[in-house]
Design a protein that fits this description.
2 domains; 0% strand; 64% helix
């Protein structure tokens, strides 16, 4: 019997080949930067040639890994250090956005370069948006001319849908806002954006990402008023943007006021208090009586849980509106306000199907309560009604309108006899 222990095989001295994909490649943009800079130096100011070079280079160079380096070079000529300064130890090119001519046409041509590049290499989309956000945070590190070019380019890219309006959040950075950099940059950006599209397109893009109510943040807290915003952008030639911001603030104020009114009604606050509060708020927000009566109507109708049965909801509505008729009366001192209320009632009864048969009864109640005049009702009936449910509501009102006309004629003949 062999008592000698068998030696276990060892792996000493044996080498195993590592598969290439398992190796962790070191992040080193130097070679990548040199290749891009060399290509841009050769193509020079010919932006079509630049686009072709970038298209072809994507097959040989690692755009996915070095996206930030690529965009830094195209914008600033080299890799950017934190704060926006160019890294001293790296190769750079004189052919980039920041050294180009400062005019809209050149910026539109540059926008096309980025557009073609991102269409060709879709995976660069997210990295490009991140790059723009970063560049906006670095604004203080750029010259005024560089900022202007970047602002024009950003406006064009926003108009073309290459980037989302959410990038504007970078402009709300406290340091940029405090020194007035954000507001000045926004002027150039919005001018080029509106030049490419129009204010409605700009508004839609801002709303999509919830930026429509944040534009005031371009200014420090002590200057964050509608008046200051309006004056600043109107003086800069952007009255459309001023009007849009004013309108947005007005919408915000209306929503807040409506919410407050509903809460007062839910608490059962006296109507005298509600009227006094509403008049004060109306003055503060510079709202017209027509706008105010629409808000009051919506608040009144939203402050109650309506019965789902058509035959019961009319009775419930009459009782509820009778209670709030003094409030409605306080804000219908003008013919236009009465007409606005009539249109709101028509719209409400059409949009809420259980109220379709209640329209005439509501109008008659408000006529008896001196909220609506016969002039307003006749004007609504003959020419000022909406198309919504028109045939149904005009038919409902036919007999009452005839009665109003007869009463008016009788009144006129009585007056003549008295004379």
């Amino acid at each position: 019997m062999n008592n000698q222990k068998q030696q276990k095989p060892t792996l000493t001295g044996q080498r195993f080949k590592t598969r290439k994909r398992d190796e962790k490649e070191r992040f080193d943009p130097t070679q990548f930067q040199e290749s891009i800079v060399q290509g841009l130096n050769q193509t020079g100011t010919d932006l079509e040639a630049v686009a072709k070079f970038l298209d072809a280079s994507g097959a040989k160079l690692d755009y996915r890994r070095y996206a930030e380096t690529l965009f830094d070079i195209l914008v600033a000529g080299g890799m950017l250090a934190p704060g926006g300064t160019l890294s001293d130890d790296m190769t750079r090119t004189e052919f980039c956005l920041f050294t180009a001519q400062e005019d809209l046409e050149t910026m539109q041509a540059y926008a096309q370069v980025f557009n073609k590049l991102i269409r060709r290499y879709k995976y660069l989309e997210k990295g490009f948006e991140e790059e723009i956000k970063k560049l906006l945070l670095f604004l203080k590190g750029f010259t005024e001319s560089e900022r202007n070019k970047l602002a024009m380019l950003t406006g064009i890219l926003l108009a073309n849908g290459n980037i989302s309006a959410s990038i504007l959040s970078s402009l709300f950075n406290e340091n940029l806002v405090k020194e007035g950099v954000s507001a000045a940059f926004a002027v150039k950006l919005f001018k080029s954006w509106i030049n490419e599209k129009d204010i409605n397109s700009v508004a839609a893009s801002l709303r999509k990402v919830g930026m429509d109510n944040r534009l005031m943040e371009l200014f420090p807290a002590n200057k964050r008023s509608c008046e200051h915003f309006s004056k600043y952008f109107t003086d800069a030639g952007l009255k459309e943007l001023s009007d849009f911001a004013r309108n947005q603030q007005s919408i915000g104020a209306r929503k807040e006021l409506q919410k407050e009114l509903q809460e007062m009604m839910a608490r059962g606050d006296p109507q005298k208090e509600i009227i006094a509060f509403t008049k004060e708020e109306m003055k503060k927000a510079s709202l017209s009586e027509q706008a105010m009566i629409s808000i009051i109507w919506t608040s009144v109708m939203s402050s109650v849980e309506w019965n789902k049965k058509e035959e019961l909801v009319t009775e419930q509505a009459i009782k509820h509106l009778k209670q709030y008729s003094p409030l409605l009366k306080a804000f219908t001192s003008q013919g236009l306000s009465e007409l606005s209320l009539l249109l709101k009632i028509q719209e409400y009864c059409y949009d809420n199907i259980h109220f379709m048969k209640a329209f005439q009864k509501i109008v008659v109640l408000l006529y008896k309560a001196d909220v609506l005049s016969e002039e307003a009702i006749l004007k609504w009936y003959t020419e000022a009604h909406l198309a919504k449910g028109k045939s149904v509501f005009l038919e409902q009102m036919k007999k009452f309108v005839e009665w109003l006309k007869n009463a008016e004629e009788e009144s006129e003949s009585d007056e003549e006899e008295a004379d």
